[in-house]
Amino acid sequence: MSRPRPEPVHLIKQRRDAALSALVDGVPYIRTMGITFDRRGDELTGVLNYDDKLIGNPFLPALHGGATAAFLETTAIIELSFQILWDEIESGRLEGGALTPETLPRLPKTIDFTVDYLRSGLPRDAYARARVNRSGRRYASVHVEAWQDNRSRLFAQATGHFLMPGRPG
Amino acid sequence: MATTSEDKARIARQFIEAIPFSKALRMHLDEIGEGLAAISMPYDAALVGDPRTGVIHGGAVSALMDTCGGAAVMSHADAPAGTATIDLRIDYMRPATPGQRIVARAECYHVTRSVAFVRAQAFDEDETRPVAAATGAFTIEQARTPERAP
After folding, report:
1. Per-residue pLDDT tens digits for A72-83
2. B5-139 domain in CATH 3.10.129.10?
3. Inter-chain touch B24–A53, beta carbons under 8 Å
4. ω into residue A105 within 30 of 0, thus cis?
5. What's the DSSP call for residue A148?
6. How far is CA A48 from CA A24, A113, A121, A122, B3, in A?
7. What does each C-alpha distance from B61 to A92, B41, B57, B133 come to in angstroms?
8. DSSP-assigned letter for residue A33
9. In angstroms, what CA-CA distances link A105 with A20, A100, B57, B86?
C-alpha cells in the first residue's frame, strides 16, 4: 500500500507559522512586552527581546520581576494553546487564510501562576520554553523555564494551572 | 542616625518611581509606610491580553503585584535596604473589568533576618471582589557592612 504523498514543506511551514502568529499577534500585551516566538516543528521558544523599559532595578541593573513573570506566563499560555491547536493545524482543518485572532478558539485562562526567581535577570534577551505536564478536558498544568546565556543556568521558572477553553460544538 | 519611618517611605517612593518597567506600565504609588503599600495602574489598550473582551493580561497584574509587594517590604521597619522577589504566587479570581484602573494593596506581614513574607490583593473599581490575590517571599538585602547582632 502506498502512503499519500507528503505535502510540500513550504505549505506545512506556512500553516504552522500562520497558526502561531494568529495566537501571538492579536494580543496587545505580548507586543508591548516585545515577546516573540521561535518555532522548530512543534517546539516553541519564547524570546523576551531586551528593552530598557523592562528594567526593575536600575542600580544593578536587573530585569523587573513582573516583566519576567509576564514573559513566563505568556510562554506557558502560547505553548498550551499551540498544543491544543496542533492536531487541527496538522490535519489542515485550520486553514491558512482562516487563521485570524477572531476565528481562533479562545485561549486558556490562568487559574494561578507561581514564579520562582533563581537569579537576577540581566539586561539582555531572555528565552523560555514551556512543558505541558498535564492537559485534561478542563484543567492543564504547565511548567516553564527561562534562561539567558546558558540553557542550564535558569534565571526563573514557574508552574501555572489553566482553565481549558470551551470548544463550541 | 536612625532612619524614621517617614525617611523609609520617602526612600521607597523615590526608588519605586525610578523603576523603568513600572513607569512603562504607568504605575502610581498611592500609599506607602509601615510595611503596607498601595500601587495603582490605569487601564491601557497596550496591556490587553484578550482582544475579544479587552481584559488586561494576567502578566500586567503580576507586574503590579510584584512591584507593590517589593514596595511593602522596602517600607517595613526591619528591612534595611533593597529587596528582590524570591517567589510569587498569583491566584486569578476573576477578569478585571475593561476600562477600569487596577489597584494592588500589599502587606509585608512578617520579616526575618533574611526573608520578608508578603500578601497582596488587586482590585478594580469594585473593592468588594478582588481580581487577584498573591503571596510572596522577598529577600532582605543586608547593608554592606553588617553590624553583628548583640
Report:
1. 999 999 999 999
2. yes
3. yes
4. no
5. S
6. 13, 19, 11, 12, 39
7. 37, 9, 7, 10
8. H
9. 13, 10, 17, 35
Residue with cell 489598550: B45
ipTM for the complex?
0.88
| Residue A114: φ, ψ to 5° | -120, 120
For A112-169, the pLDDT digits (tens) are: 999 999 999 999 999 999 999 999 999 999 999 999 999 999 999 999 999 998 755 3
Q: Which of B21, B46, B91 sits opposite A56 (nearest CB)?
A: B21
Type of residue found at B52: R
CATH of domain A9-163: 3.10.129.10
- State which residue of chain B sits closest to A30, comparing Cα positions: B49
Region for residue B120 given its phi and psi (left: phi exceeds 0; alpha: psi -120 to 50; beta: otherwise): beta
How far apart are the CA of B144 and the nearest CA of chain A, in angstroms? 15
The per-residue pLDDT for range B129-149, each reduced to its tens digit, is 999 999 999 999 876 554 444
Mean pLDDT for B51-62 is 92
Contact A28 B48 (CB under 8 A): yes
Q: Would you call A55 and B21 a contact, using CB atoms and an 8 Å cutoff?
A: yes
Q: Is B76 exposed, middle or buried (0-12, 13-18, 19+ CB in 10 A)?
A: buried
pLDDT average, residue stretch B52-58: 92
How many A×B Cβ pairs under 8 Å? 127
B62·A66 Cβ contact <8 A: yes
Q: Hey, what's the cell of A113?
A: 501562576
What pLDDT score does B149 carry?
A: 47
Can you give the pLDDT at residue B146?
47
**Which residues lie below 8 Å from residue A65, measured CB to CB, with a gap of 6+?**
A56, A115, A117, B63, B66, B70, B84, B85, B88
Pairwise CA distance, residues B24 & A31, whole Å: 13
What residue ranges do the domains of chain A occupy? 9-163
